[in-house]
Amino acid sequence: MESAAAEDREALCSPRGDVHRISLPEFLEWSGTDENGLMGREAGRRLRDCGPNVLEDTGKEGIVRKYFRQFRNFFSILLAIGALLSFLAEYMDPGQGNLYIGLALGGVVVLNGTFTFIQEYQAEKTMESFRQLIPPHARVLRDGMVLDVLASELVVGDVLLLEEGDKVPADGRLIEVNSLKVDNSALTGEAEPQLRSLNCTHPEMLECRNMVFSGTLVQSGNGKAIVFGTGAHTQIGNLATLTEQTSAVDTPIRKELNHFIKVISSIAIFLGVTFFLLAFFLQDLFLASLIFAIGIIVANVPEGLLPTVTLALSLASRRMADRKALIKQLESVETLGSTTVICTDKTGTLTQNKMAVHSLIIGYEDVDPEEPEGFAEEAAGQESGVNTGEMPAGGEVIPEEGLPGSGWDPAKIPPVFLRVAGLCNNARFSERSPGYTGDPTEGALLVFANGFTDLKELNVNYPRLEEFPFDSLTKRMEVLCRTPEGGLESYLKGAPEIVVEMCDSLIEGGGVRELSRREKEELLDRHLRMAERGERVIALAYREAEKPEEYTEGFVFLGFIGIVDPPRPEAKGAIAKCHAAGIKVVMITGDHPVTAESIARGVGLADSEALEIITGDELKALSREELAERLKKKSIVFARTSPVQKLKIVQLFQAEGEIVTMTGDGVNDAPAIKNADMGVAMGSGTDVSREAADMVLLDDNFATIVNAVEEGRTVFDNIKKFIAYILTSNIPEILPFIAFVLFALPLPMNVQLILAIDLGTDILPALALGVEKGEGDIMRRPPRSRDEKLLTSQVLFTSYGIKGPIEAAAGFFCYFAVLFGGGWSFGEQLANSNPLYMQSITAFFSAVIICQIANVFTSRTRLQSVFTKGLFKNRYVLAGIVSELLILSFIIWSPLAHLIFNTSPIDLKYLLLALPFSFFLLAVDELRKYALRKNVGWVSRLFRW
User: Fold this and answer.
1) Any idea which residues carry the catalytic annotation?
2) Integer Cα distance of 702 and 583 in angstroms
3) Which of 224-228, 326-330, 834-838 has the lowest mean pLDDT?
C-alpha cells in the first residue's frame, strides 16, 4: 500500500505527457481534484511531497568564481605587478623593507577584491529580500473558497483563476474560458496572443489551446485551469534546466568606472615606465629605479575607489528602498539623475487609486444622493465620506455610512442598471484592502452595485455565457447573460461617446422610449460637464439578445456613472520640484481629455500655462514633424490613449534626444517600460511590468519617483566628489619620485606612506562623501547630459592642476623646513635610517594629510559654497577627519609605526607650517565655485565638473 501511494505521489509530481489529450473526467481523476479545487490539508501534503513551485537558478555564477572576478580589473593587476616587483627587489637586495611593501600591496589586492565582493554580495542579497516584498501571487479555489496564495505554494490539482494582466504561475489545463487570450511568446517566441478553448486542438502540448503554461501572460479575458505541472516539471522549467545564464550587460556607471580605471591605469603605466627608464639612465641604478617604478604605480592607483563606489551605490539603493523605491540593479541608481522627461500614469500614481462612485445620471435624469456631504470635497481631492466598505467573513460587502448604497434612493435606480454595473464587470470581492481585486474602476462599480443588491445571488440568477472584453480600440466591454426566464440579455459599459452612439433608446420612468440625435448630443454635453469636475465617466446600456454574439447597435441607454479618484496631496509639490529641476512631466491616461485636463490642473501639471492635450487619435493622425513641435511644450497630457501607444510616446521623446522615465502597471505597459531609459513599475502592477522595469514603486506614488531622481542625481554628484578628492592626493604622491629622479633629492615620501594615504587616511573621508546629501540646488539644475563623464578633463585639471600642486607644495615646504633646520645642504644624500631623513618624510606626509582635511571639506559641494552645507552636518565627514588625525598621530608617534613606515616624531611647528596651505586650498576652491555660480566663461570651461 505504501509503495502504491508513493507511486501515486511520484505520478503527480512528474506529470504525464498526454494531459492535453485525455478526457476531462480522466484528467480530473488523475489529478485527484474537481472543479471546486483541493482541500487545504491535501494541498499541504502535496506541497511537502512535490516541493514548492519555484525554478532553481541555472547557470548562476558560483560564489568562488564571483569572488575571483573581483581581481580582473586593471587596479588589481597593476598592484599585483607592483607586489611582484617588490618581492624581486627584496630578493636582489634583502633587508631594505621591500618585502613589507610586497606584502602590503598583495594585502591591498586581496582586501580590495574581498571588500568589493562582500558589498556586491550583500547588495545582491538585499535586492533578493526586497523582491520578496512583492512576491508573485495566485488566486485559487481551495475548500470551495477563492484564496490568494503565494505562487510558490501551488500544487498539482489546484484550480487557478486567471484574469487579464496575470502571469500564469504554473502549467494547467483549462476548464473554463471567457474570451481568454494568452501570450505564449516566453515559450514559443510568437508574440501574437493565442485564443484559448476547452478542446484539444493539436497533438503537441505547446500548440494545444486547452492548455496554459507557467511564465506566459494573460492578455485578455479570463478563465479557470487545473494545475498539472509545477516548478521544474513545467514547460518553462524544462527549458530552464537547458539554459545557461547569459552574461550581464554593463550599465552606464559600470562602463564609466571601467573607462576611469583604464585612463588612470594608463597614466600609471606610462609614468612608471617613463621614469623607470629616466631613473635607470640618469642614476644607473637598476634596483633604485625598480623601487621608483613601484612607487609611481602605487601613487597613481586609487586603491580604495572600487569598494567606495560599490558601497556608495549600495547605501543609495537602501536609502531609496526606505523611501519605497526598489532599484532592481545597483548601478541603475545613477541613471535616474539624467532623466529629462517623466511619463506617468494618472490612476494610483498622481491620484490615490481610491475610486468611488460620485454622481449618477439615470436615463436623462440627474440623480442626487440623499446624503451628499463629502462627495464634492472628494472630487476636489479632499477627504470624502465615500469609502469602499469592509469585507466581512461571509463575503458580502456591507456598505458603511456614506457609501453610495446609503446615499441614493434605491427606488430611483433600476434593477437593470445595477445588473450592468455588477455583472459587466471582472472585479471580484476580496478580503484584502480595498475589498476587491481587479481594475479600480470596475471595483468601484462592484462596490456601488453591491450596496443595493446581493451580487452573489445576481451572478447565480444571471449566469454569464460569453464575454467580449474591453479593448483599447473599441473602448467598451460587453457580456451576455442568461435571465431567470431563459432569455438572453447583453450588458454594455464603456466610453460615453461609444456607448451612446450604440443606443437608439433610453430608459425613463420605468419604461423605454426612443433616443433622438439631439438628446444624444445633449447626453454627451452632460458627460463633459461631469468630466470637467475630474470624474471618470462610464456609460451603461443593455439590450435583449437573440443569440450569444457581440452586438454593436440597438441598445437601451441606462445612464452615466461618475467616478472620482482624488489626487495625491503630495503630487503637486513633486511636480513643481520636477519643473524646477528642468524635468518635463507628461501625464498619459485613457480618460476623456476634459477629465484629464481637470486632473492635470488639480495636480499642478499646467499651473497658469496652456496645457497641451494630445489624444490617441491625434497621435495616429499627426505627422512626425507636427508631433515633434507639440512635444516641445512644457505641459503635455496624452488623453484617450491606448496602452500600446505608450511605446510610441516613449520613442517619440527619445527621438527628440530626451532621457525618458516611464511608469506603468499593466501587461501592455511592459514594452514602453522596457524601451524607456528608466522603466518604473507599480508595486501593485502585474508581474510582467515589474520584471520589465528598472525600478519598482512599492507605494505607487509619483512623489517617490521624484525622490528617486533626486537620489540618482546625488549619487552621481557624490561619486564625482570622491573621485576628485582621491585624485588630488596623487600629485603629492607622484612628485616626490620625480624630484628624487630629476634633482637627486632624498626620496620625500616612500611607498609605505603612499599606501597609508590611499588605504588609510583617504578611505573613510571618501566614504563620507559618498553619503553626502544633495546640494540645495540639485533639483534646480537642468538634467545632466547623456554624454557627461565621471572622469572629465575638468575633474583632472581641478585635482591635478590646482588642488594637487597646493598639497605637493605644502609637503615640500615642510620637508625642506625639516631638512634645512637639521643642517642638510642641497645635493647631500641621506640614508633611510638617518633620523633627519625619517623626520623629513614624516613632515611631508603630515602636510599632505592636513591639506586633505581641507580638501574633504571643500569636496562636499561641486557648485555651492561648502559653508552653505554646514561644516558639521555630515557626521561621517567628521568621523573621517578624526580617523585621519588618529592615523597621522599613530604614524608620527608610535614606535611600531616607525618600524613599518620608517618615520620619526617631529616638532609640532612643522605641522603648523602646513595650515596656511590648507586654508589656501579651501579659499581657491571656494573662488572656483563662486566663479562657476557667476557663469564666468573661461572658469566654466576649465573647472566645471
Assistant:
1) 345
2) 13
3) 326-330
